[in-house]
Amino acid sequence: MEQEEAVPGSVRPGGRTARVREAVLRVAGDLLAERGFAHLDLAEVAARAEVGKTTVYRRWRTPAGLVTDLLADMAEQSLPHADTGSLLGDLTANAHLVAATLTDPRQGRLFQAVIVAATCDEAAATALRRFYDVRLTEWAPCVVAAIERGEAAPGTDSRAVLSAVSGPLYYRLLASGDPIDDNAIRTSAAAAAGAARAGMFVTPAGRDAD
Asked: How many Å apart are CA 149 and CA 146, to the nearest integer?
């Protein structure tokens, strides 16, 4: 008998189950981008994915369960970090990647929807934090290498540096509505790199070690 009680996103299915998951998550992402989290309906997802409604309800249970698994799938497809040879180059590459996602007609709206879901469901919030943990962990070596090259102070918090790159871009998406353009990309990367050089992201533990 097939086990369906695991938390969405906690199991890596194979075979037909994997194909069902791929179809359902693709449709869920489309609907989130089209209408937002408030209008995500499991029955419609099942119909558009050509999957039995019972299967969708049993496996994902709620719209938040779908969002949770969608974020897990996105984390699985995380792209490798850049290696340009300089902190500014790497952070600029990171900013370009973030901006490309947020300005994509589908992906930008999708991220807005999953952030909304995370504000009202703890499982979705946990999945969102896990997604960003994967991204920050993947790109952390860029900052480690910068420390070794002397471009950033010893004890610099790599996650804080990377968050300083993406934070202004997300602000534009979610709050100000200002364009996420090349100037915004270059400014966020340069500001984070400059602050790292100035030692602004050194952790208290890093200062104590000096």
From this structure: 5
Q: Which helix (H) or strand (E) holds 17?
A: helix 15-35
| Residue 36 near residue 19 (C-beta atoms within 8 A) | no
**How distant, in Å, are the alpha carbons of 8, 37, 71 from that of 124?**
10, 11, 8
Cα 45 to chain centroid, rounded: 22
Q: Which of 183, 195, 201, 26 is nearest to 92 (CA)?
A: 183
Q: Would you say 24 and 73 are in contact if contact means Cβ atoms under 8 Å apart?
A: no
Predicted structure pTM score: 0.82
Tens of pLDDT, residues 53-112: 999 999 999 998 999 899 888 888 777 888 999 999 999 999 999 999 999 999 899 999
Measured in Å, how far apart are the chain's first and last C-alpha atoms?
58
